[in-house]
Amino acid sequence: VAGRAGERAEAQHILTELERRPPGNTAFAIALVHLGLGNNDQALRWLQTAYQERSEWLVFFTPAPLFDLLRSDPRFRALMRKVGIE
């Protein structure tokens, strides 16, 4: 959200802090920050990791407008199918 609001430095700080945490249940949050920064490829990579971690947050694909930027990407649609949303 900070990245989309033009607060790129704050978003980058959040991203750095999240990436320093041990693996497990942070991938979805990292994907959101990348998405806010406009790093769609990185966001998709981290969403794949969130799927592998079985993140419960993946159910928010459908209603969240933030993901509209990715909806036309075949990788995103494939991930939605794997999650069982599409």
Quick structural overview:
It contains four helices and no strands. It has 86 residues and is an all-alpha fold.
Report on the structure:
This protein has 86 residues and is an all-alpha fold. It has one domain. Helices cover 53% and strands 0% of the residues. The protein contains 4 helices and no strands. Helix 1 runs antiparallel to helix 2. The relative contact order is 0.14. The model has no long low-confidence stretch (mean pLDDT 84).
Helix content: 40-55%
Number of helical runs?
4
Can you summarize the main beta sheet? Answer: none
Number of strands: 0
- Overall morphology: globular
How many structural domains? 1
Topology diagram in text:
Elements: H1 8-20, H2 27-36, H3 40-52, H4 74-83
Helix pairs in contact: 1-2, 2-3, 3-4
Give keywords.
86 residues; mainly alpha; 4 helices; globular
